[in-house]
Amino acid sequence: MKKSTQKKWMMYAVGLTSLSVLAACGSGEENSGAEADSSELEEAKLVTNWFAQPEHGGNYAALVEGMYEEEGLEMEIEPGGPEISATQIVASGDADFGYTSGEDLVIARDEGIPLVAIGAIFQESPYVLISHEGQVDSFEDLEGKTVFTATAVGYWEYIKEEYELEEVEERAYTGSLAEFVDNENAVTQGYMTSEPYSLDEQGVDIDYLKVSDSGFESYGNVIFTTEDMIENNPEKVQAFMNATVAGWEYYRDNPDETNTYLQEQNPDLTEEKMEYSKEAMDEIVYGGDAEENGFGYMEADNWQTLQDNMNQLDLTSSEEDIEEAFNMEFLEEAHNE
């Protein structure tokens, strides 16, 4: 890393320390699966991107089934939430591993923050653009709509440019669906594993467009760590990935016990909601390139396409070798265990 990048990174990390500590304190119950003598285990923390849910099921399965303990880790999983940034918490050193999107990881590296992807839970973007039934059949039909999305998100900037959307009223996505429900002309972002179910439960008839069908390629729920962790404690990274891969393979066919634990951590979950999420996500977790190459697989060409798109949209200006942004060694070794 260049000295200028190092300096920028150090300033960033110092500035984030107090923020990430507050975020960690406010994220809800922290979950530890260690039952053995903690003196024999190495502490490790994963911070996710939302409250406990099936989209994190494999990591929780590894916790519940003692797989992290078997690898010598006293594992803690800290739930994310609307005010919590896993990239900030991991970057500041308050957690070892995190979940983020492919776009956010590319942006972080462009800003000099040395995060590295070590696996991708979703082989394609889980995002969808949800509309009221009969209102939107194609991405071109988004013209003239009120669209609720997160600010400066890569896929939305791409869709606006690719489909020449000029008359869209953009509104900030807050996580609430209330304004969408009340506005027949509205479109909202969501996860294909979550919001469609919630809206159906409310009796709202919807259609949705999969972001992955727009031409924008990005991995979802990317598992990441830091360059420093990889360089100075590769054994910890390997232990984490060994258990993580085992957990996701276990969760595929054995979700019940883990789902019970998820419901204890997040009482808003119902059995029906978890069954829907599990079924909806199986295709993008275990399908695609993962079907042939195993859970978590990442392809250099996909990362390169993402970086090129982000640069073209002026969200980044990175010229670094994309191979620096992800590392497959730990994942491959875990599959060989």
Q: Helix content range of the residues, please?
A: 40-55%
Helix run count? 15
Percent in strands: 15-25%
Radius of gyration, in Å, reads 20 Å
Compact description:
This protein is α/β, with parallel strands linked by helices. Helices cover 44% and strands 17% of the residues.
Question: What does this 3D model show about the protein?
Answer:
Residues 1-23 form the signal peptide. Residues 53-257 form the SsuA/THI5-like domain. Keywords: Signal. This protein is an alpha/beta fold. It has 2 domains: 3-124 and 218-335, Periplasmic binding protein-like II (D-Maltodextrin-Binding Protein, domain 2); 127-213, D-Maltodextrin-Binding Protein, domain 2. Helix content is 44%, strand content 17%. It has 15 helices and 11 strands. The chain has helices spanning 3-25, 57-64, 67-70, 86-91, 102-110, 154-162, 178-182, 195-201, 227-232, 234-253, 256-265, 271-286, 289-293, 300-312, 329-335, and strands at 31-32, 42-47, 73-78, 97-100, 115-122, 127-132, 146-149, 169-172, 186-191, 206-210, 220-226. The strands form 2 sheets. It has a 6-stranded mixed beta sheet, with helices on both faces. A 5-stranded mixed beta sheet has the order 8-7-9-6-10. α5 crosses α14 and α10 (234-253) crosses α15. The chain starts with a helix and ends with a helix. Mean pLDDT is 91; it is low at 1-30 and 32-36.
